[in-house]
Amino acid sequence: MTVPCVRVDREAGEEARRRLAEDNLVNQQREIVVEDGYIYIPVTDPAAVADEYAVVNRSAPERETQTMPADLVAFDASYERLGEVVLIDEDDPEQARELADAIVASDIPTKTVLNRASKIRGEQRVRDWEVLAGEETEAVHREYGCDFALDLAAVYFSPRLATERHRVAEQVAAGEQAVDMFAGVGPFVVPFAKRGAAVVGADINETAIEYLRENAERNGVADRVTAVHGDVREVLDDYESWADRLVMNLPHSADEFLDTARRLAGEECVLHYYDIQHEDDPFSPGVRALRDAMEPEYAVEVETEHVVRSYAPHEDNVVLDVRLLRA
């Protein structure tokens, strides 16, 4: 049986394996194969592998399964990984302790286990964490070929949105001018810049902006990234009528910033507007808000209505991809 494998030169094998593991793409059911100067690393999702890697189909022997947290506990071992920082969300202190111990004892590379201790709060968009193992809250997360350093105690970041960020980034063309109005540490900004766009990222969280600048350097795109600290409504006057593309990923209150989006938009602009609404009518409120804010200065054409994920019982996190054409 053949399986998809990343093929790299032998000397680059460990780096490639590490990066694929950080993206949870290594197929743990198959052995890594060394042959004719190449290393073949079996992967679970070839479509998610960074473009810099060649993916081929070939045979790879089955391997003994590594010890995973689910093997060590009697309940659902739910967790997320950001590099070597593992995140859990357990209300039961005993179960949280048991899961953290299982994660540390498993074969997952782990330096810290954090349990969510609060919801996201405040304009800085941060949450409290309970440290169950290790000490550091800083992580380096790899996502679709980009590296992001961040401190979970000081900034907002969700690995659950990786697929959505990649969906949007794939629409970006070289030479575009893009603005991320709530940029965080750069998960939209950096991949946009890697595709050749000039990108401005603003955020009210100063620590997030510091990480954004670091991540632009880390990914070799600092020359195409401008990071601005402050309320986007007040700090981007130099970019009025500039943007070919706008990202508004602040789903609870993005409607409060639509006047600013209208000022930043160029003659023609694609706007990615994120919202949270009841599942019975998830898109109409956002469409109404966009039309009320943009018309008659812009014609509003809704190109995509997309459910990103379930947010809460009967509530969906959705996105509207909208094309604005100045009337």
Q: Which structural class is indicated by helix and strand composition?
A: alpha/beta
Report the biggest beta sheet as strand number plus sense, adding barrel if it closes.
Answer: 7 strands, mixed
What's the total helix number? 8
Could you say how many structural domains there are in total?
3
Radius of gyration: 21 Å
DSSP strand tally: 17
| CATH topology term of the largest domain | Rossmann fold
CATH architecture of the largest domain: 3-Layer(aba) Sandwich
Name the poorly predicted regions: none
* Separation, N- and C-terminal Cα atoms: 58 Å
Helix content: 10-25%
CATH class category label of the largest domain: Alpha Beta
Strand content: 25-35%
Q: For the residues shown, what is the average pLDDT? A: 93
Spatial arrangement of strands, main beta sheet: 13-12-11-14-15-17-16
Shape: globular
- One letter per element, helices H and strands E, the order comes to EHEEEEEHEEEEHEHEHEHEHEHEE
Protein name: Class I SAM-dependent methyltransferase
Keywords: Cytoplasm, Methyltransferase, S-adenosyl-L-methionine, Transferase, tRNA processing
GO biological process, one term: tRNA methylation
GO molecular function, one term: methyltransferase activity
